[in-house]
Design brief:
Elements: H1 2-13, H2 20-32, E1 41-43, E2 52-60, E3 69-78, E4 85-93, E5 96-104, H3 105-108, E6 116-125, E7 133-143, E8 148-158, H4 164-168
Antiparallel strand pairs: 1-8, 2-3, 3-6, 4-5, 4-7, 7-8
Helix pairs in contact: 1-2
Bound molecules: 2-acetamido-2-deoxy-beta-D-glucopyranose.
Residues 58, 73, 75, 117-119 line the site of 2-acetamido-2-deoxy-beta-D-glucopyranose.
Signal peptide: 1-38
InterPro entries: Ig_E-set (IPR014756), ML_dom (IPR003172), ML_PG-PI_TP (IPR033917), NPC2-like (IPR039670)
Family: Belongs to the NPC2 family.
Length: 169
């Protein structure tokens, strides 16, 4: 625990540095300090001005329990009204693509989405065999005309803890 806290502090001190070393350290601290770090969201392409800006992601429960439903709530702001569309979600584990799914945007938020703040909340169950550890989730959002309105990525963590029900399966 002490080691974990120390590494998180080092990572935060290096927050200003845009170095590969910092990114590695951050990945490492995400791996061991899931309870301390808030979910950091990044855009897939920092050079693109996405129409939908994402302010944050909340994951519940955090860490996610193996084989159990997890809810992701994304708070965002849109510069244009959205009348429909899709969210395409890809999950990877240490760079391995392990899971994809597509959600109707209007099933996860109320449509039409008018200009300004909105929240998208969706629940997913990852395959029961997923090992504990750090995962990366990439989410692309498309409007009704199939234009990409945003693309974000963030890390999340699946805990070691399993329930009795999991063991019995
Ligand atoms: C989005 O969710 C956050 C809390 O998770 C809440 O504070 C905010 O008011 C919500 N925004 C909208 C537009 O519903």
């Amino acid at each position: 625990m002490f080691c974990c806290v120390t590494l998180c502090c080092i990572a935060e001190e290096l927050m200003e540095m845009e170095s590969i070393r910092f990114k590695l350290l951050l990945l490492f601290s995400l791996w061991i300090c899931p309870l301390i770090h808030a979910t950091e969201v990044s855009y897939c392409d920092e050079n693109v001005e996405y129409n939908v800006k994402v302010k944050g992601v909340e994951i519940s429960p955090n860490p996610i329990a193996r084989g159990k439903a997890a809810t992701f709530t994304i708070s965002a702001t849109t510069g244009e009204s959205i009348y429909g569309g899709e969210m395409v979600i890809d999950v990877s584990y240490f760079g391995w693509h392990i899971h994809s799914e597509t959600h109707e945007l209007c099933a996860e938020t109320s449509c039409p989405v008018s200009i300004g703040d909105f929240n998208v909340s969706y629940t997913q169950v990852l395959p029961g065999l997923t090992p504990p550890g750090s995962y990366w989730l990439k989410m692309k959002m498309f409007d009704g005309n199939k234009n990409e309105v945003t693309c974000i990525g963030f890390g999340f963590y699946i805990g070691f803890v399993s329930t009795v029900a999991d063991i019995a399966q």
